[in-house]
Amino acid sequence: MKKLHGVCVPVSTVFDGTGETIDPGHMKAHVDRMLDAGVHIVLANGGTGEFPYLRWNERKELAELIGNHVAGRAAYMVQTSAVSTSETIEMTQHAKDIGADAAMVLPPYFEGPNMDGVYDHFEKVASAVDIPIMVYNIPQCSNIDITPDFFKRLLEIDNIEYIKDSTGDIVRIQELLRTGGTVFNGGDPITFQSLLAGCPGCVWGAVNAIPHEAVELFNLVTAGKLAEANALWQRILPSQLFLWSHPYNPAVKAATQMMGHDIGQCRLPQQPLTDSEASALVSSLAPLLNVDANQKNVA
User: Is the per-residue pLDDT at 248 higher than 70?
Assistant: First the structure.
């Protein structure tokens, strides 16, 4: 079983013009752009992939579509969360059956259980498959926080190997690293600092827009070229601060368009950015576009 490391892109889901149907051709073309940039891991059905807005059958079909297209050119992971344990097991088993290298799993969300119930959930899911599990911690959305102490407890379960922490807290990242588990950062504005702290990788939604820059940042840090990495990070950072403080998925898709690749709009009820938000986003991307923000078409 391969050990996960590097830049993981939770790929945006590309819909047709109606938003009601996944566009397979443009979806595969978008994945190709990620692979051509050297992204190490492709993740299907992540938060940036709008999984809460996908129908149950669409999640399985999309996982198969992306996995078949990646075809071993990078590591492949599927986010398999559901509210109930039985449905999470079903989705995770499906991910394993189609050849995923790992599955990412949230704690049960929306009026979830107590922490004993959370532990039981992960224990049952992990025991049902023989692929590694990445715990997905995003308490601002799930209302359940996987603390370092609780993660250490989860690490006692076979197949629980990783955590993606999306708190955006560098102190939390360092605390998690001390558990001995493998920690992937999921907080965009602290990506550079998390890599410096010892994270072997990141699950980073903005990679949809900036795959080359993301891979270059990782490679520079890994090579110990920290001055060059910091210079690149200072160009990347303004856009990450924007994404973190605005509706995330619409902003990622807008940023991807501004960087030259149209992947359409989000599925309703998510709304596109307002004109003022789009203007602020293109200004934040200006250091990467190397053009005057006023000259960039944001339509």
Answer: yes
Angstrom distance (rounded) from CA 76 to CA 117: 28
Count CB neighbours of 113 within 10 A: 14
Q: Is residue 164 annotated as a catalytic residue, yes or no?
A: yes
DSSP states of 95-116 as a string?
Answer: HHHTT-SEEEEPPP-SS---HH
Q: Which residues of 5-34 are buried (b: 16+ CB within 10 A; e: fewer)?
A: bbbbbbbbbbbeeeeeebbeebbeebbebb
Tokens of 125: 């899911």
Which one from 60, 136, 162, 253 is the annotated catalytic residue? 136
User: To the nearest whole percent, how much of the chain has pLDDT over 70?
Assistant: 97
State the amino acid at position 59 in one-letter form.
Answer: R
What's the CATH number of domain 6-224, 3.40.50.2300, 3.20.20.70, 3.40.309.10, 3.20.20.80? 3.20.20.70
Distance CA 32, CA 73 (A): 10
- CA pseudo-torsion sign 167, 190, 88, 249: positive
What's the CA gap between 9 and 195, in Å, rounded? 16
Amino acid at site 54: L
pLDDT digits (tens, 9 = 90+) for 177-229: 999 999 999 999 999 999 999 999 999 999 999 999 999 999 999 999 999 99
76 catalytic per annotation: no
Residue 19: DSSP 8-state? S
Over residues 104-116, the mean pLDDT reads: 93
Taking the C-alpha atoms of residue 248 and residue 240, their distance in angstroms, rounded to an integer, is 10
Domain boundaries, the chain: 6-224
